[in-house]
Amino acid sequence: MFVRRRWTALATTSILIAAALAHPGPGAAAPPSPAITLAPTETALVRVRLADRAQLDRLVAGGADLANRPRSRDGEWTADLVLTGRQLADLTRQGATAVQVVQRADDGARHLAESRRAAQERTRAGLRTSGAAAVDTLQFLQAYWWTTGGRTFLQAQVATTATDDPDVEITVSWRTADGATGSFPLYRFEDSGEYQYHYALPQPVPSRPVQLTATSTLGGTSRPVTPSLWPNATPPPQPAGYQKDFIDAYLTPVDIKARIARLGRQYRDLVDVIDLPNKTQGYRRTAAAYLGDPAAAAVVVESVRFGDQGMNGVQVRTVDPGRPNRPLNMRYRDRVLTISLATDGAGKVTSTTDDVAALINAPRGARFRATVEDGSAGLPMPVAGPVRLDDGLQGTEVPSRPWTVQALRIGKHRDGSRIGVLAYSQEHAREWATPLVTLEFAERLLANARTDAATRRLLEQVDVFVIPTVNPDGANYSFHDYNFQRKNLVNHCTGASRDPKNRTMWGVDVNRNYTVGSLFDGYVGASANCLSGNYAGTAELSEPESRNVIDLAKAHPNIKLAMNVHSYGGYFMWPPGAYKADGRVTLPRPSIDESTLFLGSARRIVGAIAAERGTVTWPSQTGPVADVLYSAAGNSADQLYYELGIFAWDFEVGNDRWNETTGQWDGVGFQPPFDEAHAEAQEYAGGLVELVRVARDYAADNPVRR
Ligand SMILES: [Zn+2]
Q: Per its UniProt record, what InterPro entries does this chain match (predicted)?
């Protein structure tokens, strides 16, 4: 079944490519599959099958907004990309095929509104054969099975010793306890030019598999192995009357602030609300406008102060003095900046766009700054305006002050005498489900401490820190202006990049701004381009958002375990999270003992996640960041682990869902319909509660030293 689907997919690809090239291809007789299209300026999150590896490399080099690790299968690369219809059309022309619109821009707002409405309603009511002798040896790196939703799945990773032969094909044959057999192909996975292993996405099998064998086209055969049950760990049963389900709608940063305050009041004996030391910029931007016509000749004029600091609504214009031999000059009066253009002896205007921008930028302590619009350099400056400067921000319920990021500290003994656990979420603004996870977790601990003896004992033994939203400014922008916003709201761009047409591309990737294994140290997976989705900032820890996480961890040295909660894709990861490209040299690997702790704890936590609705995080997506996702230079977990000695994990909540109809795994996106986000919050909150138990058990063997 798998093989047939694969060939169907290939045939579809050739049809679409053939159609794009406007001449009939070999598969022209087959029915065309419905094409996925976006309006040219529409932005969406799309799962795209790329033409080839080179296309992926071009996307990465160009700073494309990759939402997930690209998956390789039989030489085909699939990636989740945030892109416009125009960019998708370009990719399609170059041979790519859109296979799933994971999320459209409107979906965020719609799912927010639906979640709130529903909450209110509740309140009211193919193989080459080879005869040659075997020239490679095969070894299973992973062989696991599990059951979810009545379906049994199997996943395997196999390494060949023929690491340099890109054409080796590996097939895994399986047999179940009741004698059924089948097989599926594995795909070569390379990262940064280095062979890693062969693997496949989880495969449905009719019942429990008991034996696997791998064979290669070079004649290699593995020893038969018995796959293990994954994760083979079950949390203690929740007692009767265990309280959960505290989240009934998506929560904006304003909602989160209110929730934190409410928890602080309601559970005074168990909670401190901590104001983190570094205020963010706030939900604010400078006010800007085009003076002139960007399609012809224009200068971008921008306030130096933020729009809410009296600069929204200020007007700017150029005027023809109407007399000969006048100099270029400007005056600012009654909130109108008037630029009188220079004239020659015949009274003809002689000022250029560059002259006007230079004039606006000239005064010391200037109120305004200006850049010549890209493409308008050296052109005659038109008589234009008045135009109104505006910060472009749409949110009306958001205070426009610097924002104080807050943490909850939960436990009976909040004095550093108990082992500390830190859970933090929404470093990336658009990951709306993630604060739901940490807040559900916090409230489960607090509510059950009153009614459940086991929870009460846990809070006697562990000191829990929770930062529900690390990046509230970006989150406010994601909720009110541009749902795919990933970064914070600071604009470090200079020159033409400050053109308002780039307004959705500014900001620093908070999870690339830390100090260990950073871009500035030469590691892969962050960008120096201020418009890139992975922009690392102007320096390590240049951003208050990242400084807050580290300052909290440093101020509380009893914190020994941490979880950085992201979405989406269903990953469970730990250091190393970055490598240098040349030779793929990762940050140091944890010791054997530490690796055992990371993996053993991961299995317990994966088991607890699965206890809620059967979601099983794949073994192939459980492991070091650099191995199972991608290199993420300057991420927070690496800094917590390497600098502060904290066991630091990362969740990517929102696992792919098995689609019984198509026989494929579907991505869920950053802002799924609320029912899905709600389910993610429930299951990953269960995972965080298990992390607290892991901390308790760790402390039993490693008492906190004061
Ligand atoms: Zn993220």
A: Peptidase_M14 (IPR000834)
